[in-house]
Amino acid sequence: MIVDALRVFVTVAEQRHFSRAGELLNLSQPGVSLHIRNLENELGSKLLHRSPKSVRLTEAGAVLFKHAKQILAHYEEAAQEIRLLRDEVTGSLNLGASFTIGEYILPGQLAGFARQYPQVEVQVTIGNTEEIIAAVKSNQLDIGFIEGETRDFELDIIPYMKDEMIVTAAAGHPLTAALAVDNEMLQNQVWVLREPGSGTRAYSDHFLQEAQLSAKRSYVFNSSQGVKEAVAAGLGISLLSRWIVRKELGSGEISELRTRQKLPEREFLIIRRKENQIGMASRVFLEKLLTAEKA
Questions:
Q1: Is the pLDDT of residue 130 over 80?
Q2: In terms of residue numbers, what domain contains 129?
Q3: pTM
């Protein structure tokens, strides 16, 4: 098949070595040489200058290399579209998410996708917002989900969904007796916070600064689960996403302190590197995710 020969040719040109190309393609060196020789016979031109240590493109080889890359890209795109017609999605899905999204939202989204496309290998990395941004930029992740803001010029940034933040306290905390709390009542309280670098911490710091609130004391945890457990245990009050405490609010283990003024929503974002071409599995997952959110 001509596509196989072109793939061998491109790999040899990129590696500048027959043996290394064979290792990458799981072909013997004679098998690699046969593909190149068949291409040269078909085109009637020498494509590679060979030496004991390396190979380099001839003028004709440089022309073929440019077009071969395009042909292979178009072939793969066509193959992916044909597989989609059969509702067949394969490959890997390498995602990263900040804690709120990764622990409380993404698992439910992935469950339906995994049932529909069981051949896709899925890996999810959970970290704070700064860690997920860094991993996407260094190509360790195909797609990232973060809470908070970023204006990094290397990233495509797609709004995903809104998130409601609430002030939380343990059931029985003195402030739960109030119908609504104001800034004066929140002054000099003990706060439970996420670590610097997390989207929740950035929101909390902004809230405390805007309201000019001083903390009597603060405790810092590096996970939303840790913050939630600390609040439930009565260690202090905290700003948390409603997603995180929805079960505990229902059971009465944690209470919402209703503020006199509604807290501003924050936005969950999807990020990916601008120049990267994501694979079929990532593309289909992203399309389904955004379509479902708009529905």
A1: yes
A2: 92-162+268-294
A3: 0.67
